Amino acid sequence: MCNLYTVRKSAAEVAAHFGVEAPEPVNAAEEVLPGYSGMVVREQDGRRVVQSMVWGFPRPMKSKKTGLPIKPKPVNNIADLTNFMWRGIAPKPQWRCIIPVTAFAEAEGEKGSMTRTWFTVKNQPIFAWAGMWRISDEWGPAYSGLMTDCNEAIRPIHNRMPVLLEPADYDRWLHGSLDDVIAFRDRVFPDDLIEINRTSELWSRRKAAAIADLLED
After folding, report:
1. CATH number of the domain where residue 42 is located
2. pLDDT of 66-87, one tens digit each?
3. DSSP code for 167
4. Given the DSSP bridges, would you call strands 127-136 and 96-101 parallel, antiparallel or unpaired?
5. How many CB atoms lie within 10 A of CB 47?
């Protein structure tokens, strides 16, 4: 599943790419993790807007020790459209959004020392991930991204990938039926459009920071 992506562009650049008005100041991280704020493009009052939201729908959690409520878990990927979290919004276009992305990552390597492998789309400095959003009691507006089976380019690293949209798909994604949503989910994204960048960067920032501290001592 996708648990890390980047948007290394300003809100104004994202707005220009998707042909919408320059937004008000947007609170969004360049490197987006579950529970962080990211940018989405959605429709509001008949026009498209760029808005910041929390990445992940809040799932209520309880402590295994006490049985009391604890901090919700962000569910940031949509796998099963029949799941109770999605089935109420999946058929409704008003809850669709487009997630701007400059790269997404998967962990690769041995457990405990996994590194970040990044994926981009050729000739698209900003590309689009099919998303859905809703207003939550816990975090306000929140979004999640639709996943699908991987293509052959990604298969050596992971068996799933985001549902990526071409510019010609935007209107259909934002206005289409549930059948359209399913068609996007089942479509295979072309292998030759995916570029892969393997790095030595540790998947866990916390572990990388700990190693750096040891090297400085």
Report:
1. 3.90.1680.10
2. 878 888 999 999 999 999 999 9
3. G
4. antiparallel
5. 8
CB 125 within 8 A of CB 102: yes
Would you say residue 65 has pLDDT above 90? no
Tell me the backbone φ, ψ of residue 163, rounded to 5 degrees. Answer: -80, 110
The whole-angstrom separation of Cα 215 and Cα 217 is 6
What are the E-state strand segments in the chain?
5-6, 31-32, 37-44, 47-55, 57-62, 69-75, 77-78, 96-101, 103-108, 115-121, 127-136, 140-149, 160-162, 164-165, 194-202
The residues, any chain, with a CB within 8 Å of residue 20's CB and separated by 6 or more, are 41, 47, 48, 49, 50
Q: Is 57 exposed, middle or buried (0-12, 13-18, 19+ CB in 10 A)?
A: buried
> pLDDT-derived band of residue 205, with 50, 70 and 90 as boundaries?
low
Number of domains in the chain: 1
Given this model, what pLDDT does residue 210 score? Answer: 36
Range of the domain at 111: 5-216
Tell me the backbone φ, ψ of residue 171, rounded to 5 degrees.
Answer: -60, -45
